[in-house]
Amino acid sequence: MEGDKRVRKSRILVLFGLLFCTFLCLNPGFQQFVEFPEQNLTQNQQLEPQFHGLWARIIKEERVVSNPTISVSSRGLDSGISEKIDVVYKLFGIFPIRSGEIEVMPPMKLIPGGQSIGVSLQTKGVLVVGQAAIEDKAGHKVFPAKEAGIEVGDTLLKINNQEVRTDQDVSNAVNLAGQENGVAHVIYKHQGQILEKFIKPLFCVETGRYRVGLFVRDEAAGVGTLSFIDPVTKQYGALGHVITDADTNQKLEVYNGKIMASTIYAIQKGKRGHPGEKIGSFVTNSSFSGTIEKNTITGIFGKLRGQLANPYYKEAIPVGWESEVKEGPAKIYTVIQGEKIEEFDINIDRVMYNRTDSKNMIVRVTDPRLLEATGGIIQGMSGSPIVQNGKLIGAVTHVFVNDSTRGYGVFIQNMINEGINNKEAA
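The structure assignment produced for this chain is given below.
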């Protein structure tokens, strides 16, 4: 009899366990808990239990000061800290099930941009963008630099111990090396490594100069959109994505650069398979200008001088951190004619949390006026600020080639982290 009772008890316990596991698996709150991501909260937000039937206990850790993630706006973007807390989830307030880390972000206010800007950037070194054949005395086509191992995408830094910063510097140094000793000692960057080669310049009958057979470029220029300005430090962020060379798609290392006002005088409308673009020119007597100090995965950054304003936002507005970005309607600010900033409706169709690049949300243009004028998102619109629920949450970065009404946006949090607080970024 006692044996039968033990068997029945065991069966009841097993059945209870199966029912309990089934309840947990079907419970939406528990499913959300299983997928628990790292979170961000602002200092004004309250941490609330997100999982039904679970209880959260907050354990405060030491403040992070060695590598701050976000800074306090009232003291400028170069100071201030975030706070990290550990969250322990317990079943019925007793059994620890899972823990996670939440970063509490200090409040910050920025002025949304929207201004059309002209961007001029000079690279560190000179970028190799192509190979050029040289015809020798026998009529053969020769590629001296290519044969020595120089590739498209490499950056020339020095020739015979002389720094080269322009295409003319390269041409003159190579010609001089050919005249003097017939060998050019080249120091260059290849996939992040500093290497050196000895190249023998060849005399080109066509140009009457010694050459090594390379096409090079030392600068880039274009039109984009300003994303934000810090009213305290005058630091800005723009574009929302890295500037790359048009031929090699390589990131351009900044030696010197500037931004200024630009005016848009025509629009090339986007259509399926062919992204449109803004056609503009630099404003000679620009009311503002700025340095380019960093070219990062989430945009360009520097300091502004002069006067500029967004007619929709006379004062700075709160920053919306990653955790505050939601699917649904939002606004963007950009220029499609002259220098006038206009407001347009978009929808955030999808949010990809915890990504650190410039593709954090999928945005869709819903504004009939913008669709009629541009077909959706076009080149030159990169950096257009995105505002949702009164907070600056991001900027437009890319367009879908096969659907110009949609594209990507970057979290403003990522722009701040990568461009302002990351002292190593360049």
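Interim note for the steering committee: The chain has six helices and 28 strands. Confidence is low (pLDDT under 50) at residues 31-39, 43-81.
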